[in-house]
Design brief:
A six-stranded mixed sheet has the order 6-11-10-9-8-7. A five-stranded mixed sheet has the order 1-2-3-4-5. The chain has helices spanning about 20-30, 40-45, 85-95, 110-115, 135-140, 145-160, 170-190, 200-210, 255-270; strands spanning about 15, 55-60, 60-65, 75-80, 105, 130-135, 165, 215-220, 225-235, 240-250, 275. The chain is of the alpha+beta class. It has two domains: about 15-120, Aminopeptidase; about 130-275, Aminopeptidase, CATH 3.40.630.30. The protein has nine helices and eleven strands.
Length: about 280
């Protein structure tokens, strides 16, 4: 048993990670910063795209092993997450899984940076999170929000205000309709960062497990036409929510930022004051 009363093997032993791990994992993860990729929902959805995500204990830390989900290389991937990561913990993961080329480290890293003599450490910009203060975003004050102010003002002038309705993800018909909209918009406005359709696959996986997760979903309308939808996932860190998917009809200029604004207003109404925007995905842009 780990300290949360849930059985985990000591690395190099691992076992599959699944929906039954939610409560002990969120107790553990909730004591750490709200890393986007390591939220419970994103681990189930993105981290397990190849259905091989496994978990084990390394000291007081957790290691996740899987096939790297984005490059198509088939290479193994590892994440070491926890409150006491030190060089010994990192070495144990490399020794236990020799095929690894690198390990993502998330948590308290003071001992790694101070004590390591042999590890090559670096920041990866493709792993940076996008963090927002909800109140500041809605106020749109100052130079950092100039683009948002311009796009929102232009959108309101040309199109009018978006109407927001909440979606019921427990309804299979709603889930199928969301998937159909996402597929249609992806075909009309293909993203250069998603040539393999990973986000559509991830969205389908998320909707398949949404009954086990704290999601809030919103549809945005102009008149009777749906022009965007967003799905938020509550994080265990107080005041935090993650906007995990935002899909839009890009025939409308400024639709992405305007939709963000409207959804952030819903998050504010629910009492969330911080947003982690979407999964990082290790993609450019």
């Amino acid at each position: 048993m780990n300290e949360f009363g849930h059985p985990l093997p000591r690395f190099p032993g691992t076992r599959p990670f699944d929906v039954a791990d939610r409560y002990w994992y969120e107790s553990f993860y909730g004591t750490l910063p709200p890393f986007s990729d390591q939220s419970f929902a994103n681990l189930l959805v993105w981290g397990n795209l190849h259905d091989d995500l496994s978990v084990g204990l390394v000291g007081d830390n957790i290691v996740f092993l899987s096939t790297e989900p984005f490059s198509g290389s088939g290479d193994p991937a590892a994440v070491l997450l926890g409150p006491s990561i030190d060089p010994d913990a990192v070495d144990r993961v490399f020794d236990g899984f020799p095929a690894l080329k690198s390990i993502m480290l998330c948590g308290k890293l003071d001992r790694v940076t101070e004590e390591s003599k042999t590890l090559r450490l670096g920041l990866d910009r493709d792993q940076f999170d996008y963090l927002y203060n909800v109140k500041k975003h809605l106020a749109m004050a100052g130079a950092p929000y100039r683009k948002l102010r311009y796009e929102r003002r232009r959108f309101l002038t040309e199109q009018g205000e978006l109407r927001v309705t909440e979606l019921d993800l427990a309804d299979p018909a709603e889930r199928n309709r969301i998937l159909a909209m996402a597929l249609d918009w992806s075909r009309q406005y293909p993203s250069p960062n998603d040539q393999t359709g990973l986000e559509y696959r991830a969205l389908a996986r998320r909707l398949a497990v949404c009954a086990y997760l704290d999601h809030r979903a919103y549809e945005l309308h102009l008149g009777t036409r749906a022009v965007a939808f967003g799905i938020g996932h509550a994080m265990p860190q107080p005041g935090w929510i993650q906007l995990v998917h935002l899909k839009c009809d890009y025939s409308y200029a400024g639709i992405f930022n305007t939709s963000c604004y409207s959804i952030f207003a819903e998050f504010d109404r629910l009492g969330y004051d911080r947003v982690n925007l979407e999964r990082v995905c290790q993609l450019n842009g």
